[in-house]
Amino acid sequence: MVHFKVNGVERSFDGDPEMPLLWYLRDILGLTGTKFGCGMALCGACTVHEKGSAIRSCTKQMSTMAGADITTIEAISGQGPTAVQKVWIETSVPQCGYCQPGQIMQAVSLLHSKPSPTDDDIDAAMSGNICRCGTYQRIRAAIKEAAKVTA
Amino acid sequence: MITIENVSRRGFLQGVFSAGAFVLCARIIPQPLWADATSAGSPIDLAALHPNIFVGIHADGTGFIDSHRAEMGNGVRTSLPRILADELDADWNRVKVIQADGDERYGSQDTDGSHSVRDYFDSLREAGATARLMLVRAAAQQWGVPESQCVADPIHTVSDRNSNRKLEYGELASLAAKLPVPKKEELQLKSPDSWRYIGKPSTGFDAADICTGKPLFGMDVRVDNMLYAAIAHPPVLGGKVKSCDDKAALQVIGVKKTIAIDPFKPPHAFQPLGGVAVIADNTFAAFKGRKKLKIEWENANNSSYTSSEYKKELLATAHKPAKVVRNIGDVDAEFGKGGNIIEASYFAPHLAHASMEPPVAVADVRADKVTVWAPTQNPVGVQEEVAKALGIKKEDVTCHMTFLGGGFGRKSKPDYAVEAAVLSKKTGRPVKVVWSREDDIKFDYYHSVAGMYIKASVDEKGKPKAWLQRSAFPPIGSSFTANTVYGDDGEMAMGWSALPFEVPNFRAENGEAQAHIRIGWLRSVANIYHAFAVQSFANELAHAANRDSLDYLLELIGSPRTVDVGKTDDDEETVKKYPYDIGRLRHVTELAAEKAGWGKKQSGKGYGMGIAVHRSFYTYVATVVEVEVDDKGTISIPQVHTALDAGIVVNPEMVRQQFEGAAVFGTSIARTGEITATKGVVDQSNFNDYQIARMNDAPRKTDIHIVESSAPPAGVGEPGVPPFAPALCNAIFAATGKRVRELPLTRNGFA
Question: What CA–CA distance (Å, rounded) separates A98 from B40?
């Protein structure tokens, strides 16, 4: 049995210790905002925050969850869209939208560590998140705009 | 099944799109998108005014508008309702978009071929104008004044021109519903200068729900009592299970059982591939259990398919006389004169769709009805295929369309929904079939591999007098009719059977090619390889003539005229509606070049600019790509300019998004896109070996230039893709002098 927090709520788990956090969130808790894209930490669709930093939930096994404090897209928008999400909407970033929760979680984490990121910072932080619709240009613009808003 | 009670109330409301009796299934648990219909009907059915299947107006003034096609990033849930809302003079802030289920009364819902706006522009305007006219007539009746005295203005309101009386749409809805639905001839459509929404940019209707992680997608569907399934598919197309040891799989925590799925009966079409399903109480357990299956496969004759060998065959075919699909003048006579001959071969590999959301579907098979929730481009196809597989009537299958996490053509094929239905029937419970990324990459309906050969005889100025082009590719038809080896009229019309250049003698041919993996359509389809060959070759001719690529291309395009497109898969009326207008092709070419500052910066020494132009889905697109190539062959793309003429544009913001995205999709195709097979088994499996352009690979900046036009609306989802790869390869030639005749770039020493 491991104990941890998801979106501020105390949780415990005694199922298959190999289960990735992703499937615990989606299938057990029903928090489907975190997406499945590859299962190998190659695409970033499953990005959540652990203590504020972006991690890939598809390769984080439940056996390593003791004491973890996880935040998902549902919780960062619990009180309505955050500044980053608002800019994302105003910039018309999403096309199909499937990867966008992961992109937003990654961007929020970037802005947390680097409030005024350069283009190189954005490339370095965001190139692990694939968007098959190809919204990268707007993601970059939205991050820069969000940096201004949150500065 | 619950039949809603107010059918008779609506019985007299017979418009262009008769509502008719409407039967709905009780939903299982509430969901935000795919369960708009309650047990008593959808908000449109229940609206006070409901003149047709697309729109309903409630007494509180809320306008409910259907989006009947698939939302997969194409923006149809915004663009289609805004066409209707415009003619209705409805306040967009008081409109709610309802996602339609699969239902033949909508006409085609198969969201492919960039059809949505071009096929429904007129009928959605009529649907909106119908409701508006009824509201105006209701006001006239209420006030006892002539209809001509009443006007739908200001927004969402009818006013009396001769007094200050006004009534809101909500106040008029019930009265309007008592009037007969007007005939099409009575409708007066708004003139373009009074359009409120058409041609004006708008953010997507669902942007906020997407950005806050709401459960919108097929992958997000959860219904009570649901089981999860992962399926071990035969690695070789047509393979069968010889034996299966599932002992270890059944030991996995959460795994319930395994179930064999029958192999398909050829041709495979939309049938499941067959194999062994692992049924579990969560997705991970199903995946883990599947890994532990020990299956011996009996492989079919497709196990001879090896891409390196097949490539040689295709290119050999492309060099031999083949089936003539178009002949103008006499190329042989011209070639026989012994002039200056230029020839080249091109090759483009298979591609996989790799939508971010892999195929997934939930099905609930009950004694008297089947409900499917699926991210599908083709909901009626889901109904038909599920019905066929279960031996029931398609009317007994309800298909709720969820959002699609990308489609690109893959999700027009309902095989994965059929798998869910077959497994639900066998387990007696709702089943969610989840494809892993490996399933998606290894068991796709692949974009065709293609070999092409082009030969031209040029005059002393380098202008072609004769042009022969021959392509060979395993056709899409092979998925539906066994042993189909030639492309159909549709594939040939995609940039092959007509040449938009001033060349007196032209022949297009198509050689035989047998398919050994499932072949299907992928965003812009045969245009991808055809445009790559034709636009690369045009650039080779320019270089041979020692001419500037743009000047030469414009000279090839020639003066404004209409090109006879020859045979296509579209009907005559459509072909007539969208003549191949060389003036428009020329204009986008000039516009893209002008915006890009063509010729201002010297190409060479690792910097180059390249151009390509192509018409597909009746939209004219020219792309200029700037490239930088370092000593190691690493490329970067600082800037792209795309000019397009798609006729009337409904939502310019979303059109820009589509074409920005097409440049990134094109980047994936050009740089790394390659699916290969060895002994019938696809070699790639995930994003590590089938690489999709990431932010640091993608064009840094893409500017989109939309030509203002009053021509009928054409496609926008796909046409941005075909010119990209040749424009990039032409830019690489300008930068390095190295000609790329085979995709992807990783096969040419570039990365």
Answer: 31
